From TrEMBL:
WD repeats lie at residues 173-206, 221-255. GO terms for cellular component: Cul4-RING E3 ubiquitin ligase complex. This is WD repeat domain 23. Keywords: Membrane, Transmembrane, Transmembrane helix, WD repeat. GO terms for biological process: proteasome-mediated ubiquitin-dependent protein catabolic process. The chain crosses the membrane at residues 7-29, 49-70. InterPro entries: DCAF (IPR051859), WD40/YVTN_repeat-like_dom_sf (IPR015943), WD40_repeat_dom_sf (IPR036322), WD40_rpt (IPR001680). The gene is LOC115603288. It comes from Strigops habroptila (Kakapo).
Amino acid sequence: MGGYGVSVGLYGVSVGLYGMSMGLYGYLWGSMRYLWGSLGWLWGDMGCLWGSMGGYGVSMGYHTLRFYWWREGGRLRPFRCCRARDVGWSVLDVAFSPDGAHCLYCSWSNYVHVYDIYGDGDTHTALDLRPEERRFAVFSLAVGPDGREVLGGGSDGCIYLYDREVQRRTLKVEAHEDDVNAVALADAGGQLLLSGGDDGVTRAWDRRCLGQDRARPVGLLTGHRDGVTFLHTRGDGRYVVSNSKDQTAKLWDLRRPAGPASWDYRWQRAPRRALTSPPLPGDSSLMTYRGHVVLNTLLRCRLAPPSGDGGGQYLSAGCATGAVIVYDVLTGRPVRRLTNHSGCVRDVSWHPQGGALASASVGGA
């Protein structure tokens, strides 16, 4: 519906509207004007996200969530702010329930919290993941299509499933050798789960045959030389884009997974500033995007929605230099560099209807 969005933050968030006309890449990018400025005393933002209907969004700060209505013409009106619970350092990720009534958030904590956006009180419900490690974080969240199951990626290398109806953790899978930085749902039914870790591998899991004792991925996406920082899908069960500490983003076709990997990513780490390198053996990605800098934090990239003006032809990525880099998905070339931020841009989020791009910076808007 394209009615709301969310930004997660340490230092600021901004939303930009752009005009487009047909041209070399399908249309030329018009001027960009930012609608979301500094959030007052809030030092910055860790991320941003639009709701599935596009009617509102949320900004995520160290300990706060701020919600904004989206109005025609790109106007944003704040309507709610809450202080997050049980936060270690900062809120790390947020996700909306399918009905848009709840916002889920995570941090350095054993709990994922569910905030009632429209409730009369300040209601936060804690979901205990019961990890075994004393110091634990959930770096990434995804919510099932019916809102019942919550998927989380942990600092212990495991993925977690929590059932909100029975109010308990139902699954814990040892998925990666190190931190699970990213999780995503690949299909509309929520049966194909994805996880990306510091081992540089993205793994696909079939929910229907997933058990704690005999958990095996149904597919591997291998080709990154360093840790995966984020995964984004359109929910069509086909394509996923990954961002990585090897300074690249990659587009994958889930119908073409790689075979078993014969190398260890932990011992094949490329220099962080390497901008060109030959593909690794077994790299099954469709396209590699270079031009953004991934440093300091888990930077994100997202595919434009197919319903937008460009027909889903674009990919946006946050950059540690304070820029937002927009790529042509088909050619892999950067087509736009937005430089209005003064610090590292950790997150970007396309409006569901394709008319706006939100960005969140840890250095202020």
